[in-house]
Write a structure and sequence with these properties.
Two copies of one chain form a homodimer. With 230 residues, the first copy, chain A, is α/β, with parallel strands linked by helices. Chain A has one domain (2-219): NAD(P)-binding Rossmann-like Domain (Rossmann fold). Chain A is 34% helix and 20% strand. The first copy, chain A, has ten helices and eleven strands. An eight-stranded mixed beta sheet of chain A has the order 3-2-1-4-5-8-9-10, sandwiched between helices. Chain A has a two-stranded antiparallel ribbon with strand order 6-7. In chain A, strand 6 and strand 7 (117-118) form a beta hairpin. The mean pLDDT of chain A is 96. The A-B interface holds A 112, 117-118, 120, 123-125, 152, 159-160, 163-164, 167, 194-197, 201, 203-205, 207-208, 210-215, 217-219, 221, 223-230 and B 112, 117-118, 120, 123-125, 152, 158-160, 163-164, 167, 194-197, 201, 203-205, 207-208, 210-215, 217-219, 221, 223-230. Strand 11 of chain A pairs antiparallel with strand 11 of chain B.
């Protein structure tokens, strides 16, 4: 399948690499291709910049947001939450219509120091997932995978044989089924995929981030996930 | 130990009954004792009003907030999050000084329909736990137990032999140790108690509520909890 991954951070990198291994055609979209190709600045967590990463992943095709959106049958949003709607707006008119947008973004606000809070305008009474769905009503937004470290997103079996939970939110049942098939390819078993209902339930999963960050600090590791027991 | 339970909802009822069984002296505090004693209105989830409950639990001593606060060596806040600081302010000057306040409250806002959101002024960039600590700087606030159904709070072994997680947030390590001892009495094992750090980490645990409510809806049951895997 042709898949567009928007965003060049570690989440976008990890998803793109895994999708290529699985045999998908991948285009990674970014705002400014030339700038990204030479970017070596590490992110806030010390992960390599996209420029360094691309040298080791030459098969990844880095293109503009618009080119990636035009190419993808499925669009994965792995951009910064505060800039996701803007990134998706780079698509040519109609290029997102009828397509599934898998939204992995989190509306984190790093402007007030660490750990980040959520962007107040994008949480609690709304969510990034909902705002994307509102901005692109002809698309099928499915929020998923945003509650864990990216290594686990694409390889859940890394801990506890994959027996922990990933949530899904979205208005369209068929779109959620399609996304589940892709998650199955990553190694997610159906019994570990918990459908929380329509896209407004993304409020809940995005609001997991603050406790996720505190647990990461307490455990000094991001290699963990939640399992719903009972 | 003398324990004050503030709040007459199902959480306060469940905690009070369990503490009595464990041999503690319990006073349940409320705003208006006479009104509460005859209250039969069910809550938003259909649980019995405190008036009906007291008939079946005659050993519980229902008193004013002030009387309960004066009595308790430990104060448990199980009032509605939006009214918790106000409830605690009913104490006589100095009556909370040097005491542990176990804060189980959640700042839920039911005014916008179901499921509730969090009260915007009490989430994300602050939390109920932090606001209580600010209002009573001579007390030791420990946020805990607020991320699960009250039946599990006092009887974690009800599911998976108790092997799921309860979080603690608070500025004072000794106070958290004291609270852990009480949690041990409820059946919590130390390895299932996850200390997330200072009271600001209560932002994270309070923000679990929205996804908790969605999972409850998806599972049609509140008898579940989170386990941190990995």
């Amino acid at each position: 399948m042709n898949i567009a991954v928007l965003g060049t951070g570690t989440v976008g990198q990890t998803l793109s690499a895994r999708l290529l291994v699985l045999g998908h055609e991948v285009m990674m979209g970014t705002r400014n291709v030339q700038e990204a190709k030479i970017r070596t600045t590490k992110d806030v967590y010390g992960n390599p910049g996209i420029g360094d990463w691309l040298k080791n992943n030459p098969r990844v095709n880095l293109v503009t947001f618009a080119e990636a959106i035009a190419f993808g049958q499925i669009i994965i949003n792995a951009t910064q939450g505060g800039k996701s709607v803007e990134a998706l707006r780079n698509g040519n008119p109609g290029d997102l219509d009828g397509k599934i947008i898998i939204d992995i973004g989190n509306p984190l606000d790093f402007s007030r120091g660490m750990p980040p809070v959520l962007i107040p305008e994008l949480c609690n009474t709304t969510s990034l997932g909902e705002e994307i769905q509102k901005a692109f009503p002809q698309s099928y937004v499915v929020k998923t995978l945003n509650t864990m470290w990216c290594g686990l997103m694409v390889n859940p079996a890394m801990i506890a044989g994959g027996d922990h939970h990933n949530f899904l939110s979205g208005n369209n049942p068929e779109a959620k089924l399609e996304v589940k098939k892709l998650l199955n390819q990553f190694g997610w078993k159906d019994e570990n995929l918990l459908d929380l209902g329509d896209i407004s339930s993304a409020r809940g999963t995005e609001m997991i981030l603050p406790v996720w960050l505190r647990i990461m600090t307490a455990k000094q590791s991001g290699v963990f996930n939640f399992k719903v027991i009972g």
